[in-house]
Amino acid sequence: MGLFHTFITTATAQQAIRWYGQVRFSSEEGVAAFHQELMLWAGRLAQYPDEYSFKRRLFSGLPADYRQHLALYDGVSTENSSINEIMWKAHHLEKIMTSLRVGQGPERLLGQGAVQPAVGGSSQRLKPREWQQEQQSTSIQLQNHESSHVEPSTQCTSS
Asked: Which of 36, 55, 70, 119 could form a disulfide with 76 if both were Cys (CB 3.0 to 4.6 A apart)?
């Protein structure tokens, strides 16, 4: 405790508390930068916040649409989710939101599905397994059609 009073002034401790409370989420910098900034200022506090307080600060600092989606669809809460779970799910949501903002629809995200051209030039979104089954079905139909089709010149007529 003696070193703390020697090197850390009251003004420095107050400044760390103020900066920790003023950290804001930036959509340009993202979830990871927000978490890192919180960790930086939490480490400068006289006493590191307990896990629940940090999770509450992290979750409440996210944009309202992130919080709503994470709570409703991903089951994230400060009471039951770990910091890693909050971060992982928020980062995943951020990637989806970013791709939608820059004009890359969900069908362009790797592993999110495939676009199968339909007759008439339109496209429909198929899941990877459905797309694979569609391809196999089309292949089987083509094989059946080719094997059942016999050229008229090769047919034998018996009299």
From this structure: 70
